[in-house]
Amino acid sequence: MKTFSFNVKTSRTVKAALGRGMENVPAQFPALFAGADKLCLVTGSDAPPSLRARALSLFPEGKTPHLYFWLPPSEKAKTLEEAGRLCAFLFDNGFSRNSLLIAAGGGAVTDLAGFAASIYMRGVNWVSVPTTFLGQIDAGLGGKTAVNLGGAKNIAGTFHQPALAVCDTAFLDSLPHAELRSGAGELVKYAMIGPAGLRSELLKHLPRAVSGDKTALTACVSACAAYKLKLVAKDEKDETGLREVLNFGHTVGHALEALAGGRLPHGEAVARGARAALLISRETRSLSAADHRKLYSMLDALRLPPARGVRRDFKKFLSLVSKDKKARGAENRFILLEGPGRPFAAENIKPALLRKAFAEALK
Ligand code: GLY
C-alpha cells in the first residue's frame, strides 16, 4: 500500500469591514463584487424594514440585480430542509460557482446561508453581514456554518469562511434590550477568557453597551472582532486549542438552549453556561475563590432574567452535554478557567459536579 499526504491550504482570504453607517460596500471591494455573475441577498422573514433598508444601502443594486431569499425566523431557519430550499432556489435561478450570497441577519441567518454557500456547487463565495450585537462580535465571524439536528445545536455544518464580513454597528440602533443583553453574554465571555487589555476595554464599555450606547457598542464590536479574527487566523478549523477557548460557556449554554426548545437567547444561555463553567473551575480547584468572585461579578451588568422555559431535566442535560460535538469522544469536555484570561480544556467532569453546575446555570 502506498500512502500520500498533501498539505492542502483550504482557507480563503477573509476580509472584514467594521464601522458605523457604511455605504456601498461593493465600491470598496470591487474585485469580489465585479466577479459575481449573480447576487442573492438572504435575510430572515422577520427582519424589520429598517434592516432591509440598511442592507440595501450597503449593497445597492448595480448592473447585477439582486435576488432575495427569506428564511423562516430565528433558529427555525437552521435546518437541512431550509439549506436545501435555498440551494434549490439558487439552482432554479441559474446561480453558478461565480455567484455570491449575501447573508444579512442574526446568527441563524449567517449560519444557514453560510452553510448553503459551502455546499451549493461545492462552495460559492458569501458575504456575512451580521446585524445583531451577538452576530457582530461572534456568530457572524469566523466561518463556522451549521444547521441544528435532533433538537441539538449546530450538529451538521462546515467551515466556510465568508469572503467578506461586514459589521456595521448602525444595524444595532433598533435592537431591543433583550438582544443587546444576549450579545453582552458573549461579550462577558471574551472579557473572561481574553487578555487583560481586552478585558479592561470590554468591562469599561459593558454597562453602556447593554443600554444601547452607540459608541460603546462600536468599541466592543471592534475589540471582540479583532480578537476573534486573530484566533481564527491561527486555528481556523478549531484543531489546535487556540480557537476552542471561544467555546467557554457553550457546552452548558447549548444544552440549555436545547432544553428551552430554542426559546432561550443564545448569549443568555452562554452567560448561564459561563456561570456553570466558573463553578466547575472553582470546585475542581483550578480557580481560586477570589478569582471566582471577580469573574462572577462580570455577569452582574447583564441582570439576567429568571431562566423561564428551560426544562429542569438533569438526565437530558447530561445526555446533551455528552453528545455535544465539542466533547470530541470524551464523556464531556469543558473550557474552564485557571484565572482571568487563562482558559484550558478539561474532560470527564463527574455527574455529581455537573448536577451542581446545572443548578448554578439555572439560578
Ligand atoms: N463561536 C465559537 C467559534 O466561532 O469558534
How would you portray this structure in words?
This protein is an alpha/beta fold and 363 residues long. The protein folds into two domains: 2-174, Rossmann fold, CATH 3.40.50; 177-212 and 236-361, Dehydroquinate synthase-like - alpha domain (Dehydroquinate synthase-like, alpha domain), CATH 1.20.1090. Helix content is 45%, strand content 16%. It is built from 14 helices and ten strands. The strands form three sheets. The protein has a six-stranded parallel sheet with strand order 1-8-5-4-2-3, sandwiched between helices. Strands 6-7 form a two-stranded antiparallel sheet. Strands 9-10 form a two-stranded antiparallel ribbon. Strand 2, helix 3 (49-58) and strand 3 (66-71) form a beta-alpha-beta unit. The longest helix is centred in the middle third of the chain and has 21 residues, at 214-234. It starts with 14 loop residues before the first strand and ends with a helix. The model has no long low-confidence stretch (mean pLDDT 94).
